[in-house]
Design goal:
The protein is α/β, with parallel strands linked by helices and about 425 residues long. It has 15 helices and 13 strands. It has an eight-stranded parallel beta barrel, surrounded by seven helices. It has a two-stranded antiparallel sheet with strand order 5-6. It binds flavin mononucleotide. The site of flavin mononucleotide has 22 residues, from strand 3, strand 4 and helix 10.
């Protein structure tokens, strides 16, 4: 296990952050212009490897057509592609992962856009590859919702087409030959002539080779087909904390085994886990803060938000179920299957699961910066993981600062996280240790 680990931040979509809390500041109205750019500067100062923006390209609605539960609390994502290059321009080394779904996009359009952005950002682009498990989104694009495993079959072909497009230019195709007045040698560009089950593309891609050749790829597979897809293509594989430290360790080993099956080396992949830290100056204050977050009205907001998220993850209207009872054993989903199975197996009530959702998917760590640093060090050593992603659905500048200016300096002083970027390229930073 390498002594150092990487840091990323999982942002729950390019949307209004926690906007009506004590420390919300001006983010209710200027979030699209300011909040995430300020956040990116803080992460860059703390030498995070990346910021990842989730996305669901639709208005979240319950399955009787009601949009009120989600719109009420302001969950409405705008397209993270729009902010990604701005974040790179406003920072020195931070990588950016916008999310785009293989069920909605066209591979040529997406390969071209991401490559263009890799040029504009001089090599700091990533792509969070998702298949989009929400039933209502495909109708926005005029197509039918596909079942879980079919979506992954389509995702595999999508990624295959993109790889072919990204390899459709020889690296030395841009010749800049002044004597012969030739900028690009056309003989070094190649058609791909892909004709598959879901996609056809002739190529070559209409973008010269980019600083990173192709963007850094992230995937968070939890099912068998999901983990296989991640192990085949992803540079960064994101794991939930299902099953605690033992579950995390097993997940990483599983991803490594699958990578080897696909002819890759485990060292080609960075496995990172979601964490939900609460840090404060004293242990008592941190515990108090954590406890208060589990009381009304905060817990009502948390439970409400998570009922929406889980409903959408599973395409099941959880508002119709009894909060005081465990999840029925016979529920099934074409969405996030591992998540549903873990929660069913816990035997806990739906209300309890929703109120403590962070603790189900992200490892809860509460304490002073020193205590949290020690705990992360222990989890890193025990699981062998390559790093952690901060996960908090209720973002304020204060929370961000507690991490970037409270926790990270301690991690750095202990030699656990980087104190500077080693390269201008996102991928090189990620694989420098
Ligand atoms: C950190 C993280 C970010 C994710 N971001 C998105 C997202 O933005 N959009 C989306 O449709 N799914 C997103 N997912 C869902 C995953 O792509 C995946 O579907 C989920 O982890 C379940 O795995 P499975 O599809 O293999 O069952 C995310 C999951 C995690 C853990």
């Amino acid at each position: 296990v390498h002594k150092q680990f990487h840091l990323g931040w999982f942002v729950d979509g390019f949307r209004v952050p926690a906007w009506n809390q004590t420390w919300s500041g001006s983010s209710d109205h200027d979030w699209a212009q300011k909040f995430y750019v300020d956040m990116a500067r803080s992460l860059d100062r703390a030498k995070f490897d990346f910021m990842l923006f989730a996305d669901i390209p639709g208005v979240k609605e319950m399955f009787d057509g009601s949009r009120a539960p989600a719109t009420k609390i302001g969950i409405q994502y705008i397209d993270p592609m729009s902010i990604a290059p701005i974040i790179a321009w406003e920072t020195e080394g931070l990588g950016v992962f916008p999310t785009a779904s293989t069920s909605d996009w066209n591979p040529y359009l997406l390969a071209r856009l991401l490559s263009s952005m890799d040029h504009v950002t001089n090599g700091r682009m990533g792509w969070n590859m998702v298949t989009g498990g929400n039933k209502d989104v495909p109708a926005n694009f005029g197509h039918e919702f596909m079942g879980h495993d079919d979506r992954y079959r389509k995702a595999n072909e999508f990624a295959e087409v993109m790889m072919k497009l990204w390899n459709s230019w020889d690296d030395d195709a841009v010749v800049r030959d002044y004597e012969n007045n030739t900028y690009i040698d056309g003989s070094k560009t190649h058609t791909i002539d892909h004709k598959g089950e879901f996609f056809a593309s002739r190529g070559p891609l209409a973008v010269p080779p980019t600083p990173q050749h192709h963007p850094v790829l992230a995937q968070a597979g939890a099912s068998d087909v999901g983990k296989d897809f991640a192990a085949k293509y992803a540079d960064v594989v994101i794991g939930a904390s299902y099953g605690g430290v033992a579950g995390m360790k097993a997940y990483r080993e599983d991803i490594h085994r699958r990578a080897i099956d696909h002819g890759r080396s485990p060292d080609d992949i960075r496995v990172m886990f979601l964490i939900a830290p609460t840090v404060a100056a004293t242990q008592a204050e941190a515990e108090e803060r954590f406890r208060l977050a589990k009381q009304s009205p905060e817990v009502d907001a948390v439970r409400h938000t998570n009922l929406i998220n889980l409903s959408l993850h599973w395409s099941i209207d959880l508002f119709k179920l009894d909060l005081d009872k465990p999840l029925p054993k016979d529920l099934t989903t074409q969405g996030h299957q591992a998540e549903l199975a873990t929660m069913q197996a816990s035997g806990r009530t739906l209300g309890d699961l929703a109120a403590n959702y962070d603790g189900e998917t992200a490892l809860v760590v509460v304490g002073t910066p020193d205590q949290v640093a020690s705990e992360l060090q222990a989890v890193h050593e025990e699981t062998g993981c390559d790093g952690f992603l901060i996960n908090n659905l209720f973002l304020t500048r204060r929370y961000i600062s507690e991490i970037t200016d409270g926790l990270v300096p301690v991690l750095q002083r202990r030699g656990l996280t980087r104190t500077d970027y080693s390269s201008k390229l996102f991928r090189e930073n990620l694989f420098s240790f």
